[in-house]
Amino acid sequence: MAGHMCCVGVSSCVAAPPPTFSVTTKMNTKLASGHEVEDMSEEWLARMEQEQTLYNKGMVRLRPGGWLYPTLFTKYADAIYNYKVSLKVTYVMGMPRSGTTWMLELVWTMLHNPDLNQRGNLPIFIRAPHIDFDMMLDSKTIRSTENPQQFTEMFRQMCPGKKVEDGVFLQISEALPAPRVMKTHLPSTLLPPSLLQTTKLLSGLLVLPLNS
Questions:
Q1: Residue 30: predicted pLDDT
Q2: At what angle do helices 148-158 and 168-175 cross, to 10 degrees?
Q3: CA distance 200 to 81
Q4: Cβ count within 10 A of residue 153
Q5: Beta strands 24-30; 36-40: pairing state
Q6: Is-above-0.85 flag for pTM?
Q7: Which of 32, 65, 69, 191 sits a CA distance of 20 to 30 A from 94?
């Protein structure tokens, strides 16, 4: 059996050797998108931890597609899939580390010029939320690279009465005035079904390996 690639973090993929042990446990969840969820086995997680740091609550694989995500994604998956998109929402989509944040800033500036002073001083993750980033807050390394407290403080200011547990970034995106810009690394099958027919602009990024 040939080795396989596992993309398990926001910035890295590792080449995993052929498994000689149980990789997944029983499928026990079905998402609104129709995907079934497989819990990755403790043995698989321990093996992967030898290569890189993972997540406190483990990981899952979605079928069909075979995508690996932090287990916490399943908490927000249906809300993301059922999100009501409109012509006033612009999605910036792309693979991790492909330049999406740079493109996000560019698109946001184009849509809000010349009124940049109203929100231009806010962090980009507030002006143009990464809607699936809540799952990354379960990373064992998040506190060394990000500031979750900063996220929640701004959330409470922008979304009074809302619960952090229901997802910070998707709710922030709902609270933003139009035109809104949102970022995602998810495949289209995990996003709202009406996305391609409803959004005003859909931005995709393709980066050649030699340029990365």
A1: 92
A2: 40
A3: 18
A4: 11
A5: antiparallel
A6: no
A7: 32
